[in-house]
């Protein structure tokens, strides 16, 4: 859902702070319900993509907006000003957390003062490479565009990918 820009890294953190899977599922559903469409459609499509075809079919519905609800939903959208680098990071979230080797990237970011040595230790405290990469992504999403640019330079040095 992050790659479809339906939930943010902050939403994910709020979901993951719950101990049990049931509580995490409830937190995700609360977000989907509050956000309505298109979050709902992305959620249902995600269920289908991960093998929950029956549940997805039960939940699939047509959202034909009435003229008043469409204008109410778009009201205030012009106030949103999300930096492009954050959008690019979120759209590539899954690829980054599953595919990158964080070691050399974190070293580069420390030398460029994007993250501190303590941040590097926090990243390394993750149990799996994915947890380490999630922590790195969380930090990058809270940094400025210069931090993002240094992240891209580190990716180029590791000849991994370009976002």
From TrEMBL:
A Gene Ontology BP annotation from the UniProt entry: regulation of apoptotic process
Pfam family, one: CARD
CDD domains with a match to the protein in the record: CARD
Residues annotated as domain CARD: 1-49, 89-163
Any one GO MF annotation of this record: death domain binding
Protein name: CARD domain-containing protein
Species per Swiss-Prot/TrEMBL record: Mytilus edulis
């Amino acid at each position: 859902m992050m790659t479809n820009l339906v939930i943010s890294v902050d939403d994910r953190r709020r979901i993951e702070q719950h101990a049990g899977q049931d509580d995490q599922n409830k937190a995700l559903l609360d977000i989907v319900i509050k956000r309505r469409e298109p979050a709902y459609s992305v959620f249902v499509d995600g269920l289908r993509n991960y093998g929950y075809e029956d549940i997805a079919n039960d939940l699939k519905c047509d959202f034909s907006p009435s003229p008043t609800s469409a204008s109410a939903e778009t009201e205030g959208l012009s106030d949103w000003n999300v930096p492009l680098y954050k959008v690019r990071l979120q759209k590539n979230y899954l690829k980054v957390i599953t595919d990158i080797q964080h070691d050399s990237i974190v070293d580069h970011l420390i030398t460029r003062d994007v993250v501190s040595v303590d941040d590097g230790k926090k990243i390394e405290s993750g149990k799996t490479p994915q947890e380490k990469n999630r922590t790195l992504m969380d930090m990058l999403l809270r940094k400025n565009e210069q931090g993002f640019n240094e992240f891209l330079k580190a990716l180029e040095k590791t000849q991994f990918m370009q976002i």
